[in-house]
Amino acid sequence: MFQIVSNLLSNAIKFSLEGGKISIALHETEIDGKSIVIQDQGIGMSVRDIEIALEPFGQVNRSLYIEENGSGLGLPLAKQLVELHGGRLKISSEPGGGTEVEVQFDENRWREDSGKNTTG
Predict the structure, then answer these.
(1) Could you point out which of 51, 87, 88, 118 has its C-alpha 20 to 30 Å from the C-alpha of 79?
(2) What pLDDT is recorded for position 61?
């Protein structure tokens, strides 16, 4: 779960303009599950941009907005990890309107923390 959230937050930060807000929330879903929703007020993506970004090494040209380029693996890796755990990744975005990424898992995929210190 850490790697999934880390990759998605990294993208939200990378593609947000200075002063933009990023939020992360945990929600109960309608069908016995939970979802993590990450929203940003960044540069957004078109439907075609989303398709490209989900392909391994796929990079959308954002050189006008950001100086840092990534490997093009963060989003595809997050999607694959979500699917390997039986989840779903949904992206809603539009150019100039920010992006929302929702990761949904069924209830049986969530492990409640017992509150015990397990680090030794």
Answers:
(1) 118
(2) 63
